[in-house]
Amino acid sequence: MNFDASYLHYWGKSKKTITTGDNYHLLVYHCLDVAACGYIMASENRFGMRDVLAELGLDSDFGYRWIGYLFACHDLGKFANGFQRLAAHPGSPLVLPAAGVNTPGRHDTLGFWLWDKLETDWLDDKPGIFPEISSDQRDEFIYALDIWMAVSTGHHGFPPEKPNDCCVTAFTKHDIHAANEYLTALGKIFSINLLPAEWKASQWRKKLQQQSWFLAGVMTLADWLGSDENYFSFTSKPMPLEEYWIIACDKARKALSTLPLSSNIRRYEGHQALFPFIHSLTPLQQRAADLDISSAGPQLIVLEDVTGAGKTEAVMILAHRLISAGKGKGVYVGLPTMATSNAMYQRLGKAYRKLFSDTARPSLVLAHGARHMSTAFRQSVWQTDKSQNMHYAQNDASAVAECNAWFADSRKTALLAEVGVGTLDQVLMAVMPFRHQSLRLVGLRDKVLILDEVHAYDGYMVKLLEGLLWFHAAQGGSAIVLTATLPATLKEKLLTAFAAGAGFAAANPALDAGYPWLSHLSSIGLHEYPLQTRQEVKRCVAINWLSDIDRALEIIYRVVEAGQCICWVRNTVDDALMVFLRLLNDGKIAQQDLLLFHSRFAYADRMTIEENTLAWFGKDAAPETRRGKVLIATQVVEQSLDLDFDWMISDLAPVDLLIQRAGRLQRHIRNAHGVFKSSLPDERCPPILHILAPEWQEEAEEGWLGEALRGTGYVYTDHACLWRTQKLLRQYGEIRMPEMARTLIDGVYEGQIPAPPGLKGIEDDVYGALLSQRAAARQNLLQRDKGYHRDASDFLWDEGREFSTRLGETSVDVYLAWLDDDGQLQPVVKEGEFRWEMSRVQVRASLWKQNVSRFSLPDEALLEAFRKRHHRPVAQVLLVSEQGEAAYYSKRFGLSAAS
Whole-angstrom Cα distance, residue 426 to residue 404? Predict the structure, then answer.
């Protein structure tokens, strides 16, 4: 080994300031650090890596060696003199800056260009990569090698850009020679002489393209681990690569030992191990316990049942059975909102450990906010030392800084935890061109994916859901969908997408499906089962129509006077604020008996309000606690929160949402005094849902919603849907569940009732928007068969640009802060590990823009320092008092908009 080999004159990691130890780490040693992490990850089957290699037909020995070789190539672009000039080390033996070179792109793209250049030289019969492969066979391997190298060089969260002629200006001839010499040395270290013959076949390359998404994710993880200076200290003294490889492997084993091992799954032996308090299963839970899941391959199960049918317990029984049968190693639960995620997190926290053996320490992570993430849970998910930070150019961030930013965002970490709970958005991002989407796929691959509270999403979200289920099934993953109200066409789309991804025959659900209903799709076909409903959860809620706000307020006053509790669900925050302020100003109800709950609160304040809401209106709330209480809320209460109101008012909304809201009306059985009972009858007055709506207009025209519900028209743009909802509920005068579920849902969403001519134009616009939404979503979905490549998305990859998992107006992350005596920003939340995240509130971009002139803001320097420190490049900071109050923000009212 030449101790003065040309490749030993390039740095790979460099310290910004002089500290103890070496001030730079030789490039080839960093590459071997990362290679060692990949090699050990494969040999230990971390994240199922060995299983993926086996699916590609790579035997253990060659497969591990190939991963080592491949990952050792990830930073080829750093051989560019244009990159090396980014850090100076005077007096060192490193290459000096050369005249005429520049840095036209990131080092990942430069690396892919360099690989292409060395491939070209190899094809021209010049000495270089894999010299023992004969010249007449070389071009047959190029296609497969390009796929592999896109995985390796694309380790910063998205595939490398296509090579272009500008990249040549970053390299000198010496750089290219050094890289070529390095690859030759790597071939000897890893004994990569010949390549498998099947790599020439197009069918095998298609398999590689499909698995390249997963491989790109573990490549990034290996780079992050191999960049951790706690385990891989800088080494600038040259030594033979073979000698350093032994050192790197030893360090990699130590680094990987800090990652949690996969927990052993507890064998399913009945529901009582999970839920000892359940003595008698509901019909849905019994079907979940008995369902035949023995067929090979992934499975999709759709559960449609009423509120109170025990869907959460049923889905956990199914999930346990599936992972016990080897169809997964963990669970991710995706919900529509942060509030529903919080509720599910708390429920799973009591049962998730019972999925695993007694000696296991499985990780449970909330995919946002971190309020409920206990220390024990946090310790089960590894974190790197956030004190280290390497120096790079602004557009070429270090892997450690990237890693720290990633782990600081628990929403991403959740997909690698064995049990994750969070919003649906987090898994949708796995199949869209977001940065680090491949990491999400790594976390999702061995999970049973549970999608809870699925309902009538817009066309954009539905198309993304289809793409998610297609991708998940193609990876071999099983999924469970829970819903109380699912339109027939939406269920058909989800079944069709999953079947296509899994390679199953087309699924054709029954046209006359009943309700409740279970649909089970597997490799042996689609099987559907009607379900019975317990008497305790059958519901008949009468409908009463209100045409003005004053009548609604009168009902509230009567309820409070009678010593009962009530909730009014409004469709906009501003409408909720308006009613809440009227109640306060009227002074007829004690202030301590009024509560406002909406989305424009800082996270900590919102959680306090949520806790108060559950304390007042939860299942175990005492009669004296409930008495005379009033909640004015928005849609945040219509799902997952286990609330029970004596009376309810709602603004007119689509029928499925009204059914959800009515599910919180007399949800639990109580006596006449509000004491919880275990069995019927409920001794309160029969439930009535009062709906604020315009006077009925059989021939409704545009603007028919009126001034009182003008905001509703902006939130729910399908006015024909609202009109059909009102027409059907007027026709029947009640919501009777489960008997009327199909009649109401399909009557509104399947176009069975023609809209009046005056709304036809709006309906046509909505349909056109639906097609546009689906087209936009299709563009944003990744195409798995194209592999980890820039062309896998019709849309540009997210490199700092914003696009969303949901259509609608962009939101702004706003952090509430106060200025201390030193003029530094401090979060309004003063205790806890996540003080800044707890001080965050999300607002619409237009609301922020409309109100920014009346807000008190920090100066630009303070704001930019905050953004850099917390890795939030587009965040805003809003100044309030140290107590968290301002003219525009209150812990009681939240963030108010200009009148």
Answer: 19
* CA–CA distance, 226 with 306 (Å, rounded to integer): 50
Per DSSP, 536 falls in state: G
Strands 24-26 and 11-14: antiparallel
422: β partners? 334
The phi, psi pair for 815, rounded to 5°, reads -105, 125
CA–chain centroid gap for 60, Å, is 33
* 415 touches 424 (CB < 8 A): no
Picking from 834, 859, 868, 807, the residue whose alpha carbon sits closest to that of residue 370 is 834
For the beta carbon of residue 832, count every other beta carbon within 10 angstroms: 12
Question: Could you check whether the bond before residue 681 is cis, i.e. omega within 30 degrees of 0?
Answer: yes
Round to the nearest angstrom and report the end-to-end CA distance of the chain.
76
Do 483 and 518 lie in one domain? The reply is: yes
Question: Which CATH number does the domain housing residue 313 bear?
Answer: 3.40.50.300
In a domain, 768, yes or no: no
Q: What is the mean pLDDT of the chain?
A: 88
CA distance 687 to 819: 50
Query: Among 218, 239, 256, which residue terminates a domain?
Result: 256
Query: Is there a single domain that holds both residue 543 and residue 523?
Result: no
Are 522 and 546 found together in one domain?
no
Contact indicator for 566, 688 with CB cutoff of 8 Å: no
Place of tokens 């889905």: 315
In one-letter notation, the amino acid at residue 210 is: Q
Alpha-carbon 326 to chain mean position: 24
- The domain of 131 spans 6-256
Task: Work out the pLDDT band at 227, boundaries 50, 70, 90.
Answer: very high
Residues 572 and 494 in one domain: no
Q: How far is 416 from 406, CA to CA, in rounded Å?
A: 12
**Mean pLDDT value of segment 123-140:** 78
- Report yes or no on 26 lying in a domain: yes
Return d(Cα 150, Cα 474) in angstroms, integer.
Answer: 21
Q: Per residue in 571-624, pLDDT tens?
A: 999 999 999 999 999 999 999 999 999 999 998 999 899 899 999 999 999 999
pLDDT in tens, 612-621: 999 999 999 9
Last residue of a domain, one of 672, 702, 737: 737
Span 260-288, pLDDT tens digits: 778 899 999 999 888 988 889 999 999 99
Q: Is residue 628 part of a domain?
A: yes
Tokens 């990859």, residue?
Answer: 797
Cβ burial of 92 (10 Å; 0-12, 13-18, 19+) is middle
Measured CA to CA, the distance from residue 725 to residue 692 in angstroms comes to 13
Query: What is the pLDDT confidence band of residue 862, given thresholds at 50, 70 and 90?
Result: very high
Q: Same domain, yes or no, for 516 and 545?
A: no
550 and 513 in a common domain: no
**pLDDT for residue 128 is more than 80:** no
Cis amide linkage into residue 738, ω under 30° from 0: yes
Residue 778 lies in a domain: no
Q: In this structure, which amino acid lies at residue 684? A: R
Give the model's pLDDT for residue 837: 86
Write the secondary structure of 611-669 as one string of H (helix), E (strand) and C (coil): HHHHHHHECCCCHHHHCCCEEEECHHHCCCCCECECEEEEECCCHHHHHHHHCCECCCC
pLDDT computed for residue 389 by the predictor: 39
Give the pLDDT of residue 414: 60
- How many domains does the structure of the chain reveal? 4
Structure tokens at 387: 């004190």
Q: 210, 202 in Cβ contact below 8 A?
A: no
Q: Give the strand pairing for 566-569 and 647-651.
A: parallel
Task: Decide: 91 and 172 in contact? Cβ < 8 Å.
Answer: no
368 in the same domain as 333: yes
Gyration radius of the chain's alpha carbons = 30
Look up the pTM and report it. 0.88
Q: Output the pLDDT for position 235.
A: 94
343 and 475 part of one domain = yes
| pLDDT given at position 789 | 93
Pairing of strands 889-890, 894-895: antiparallel
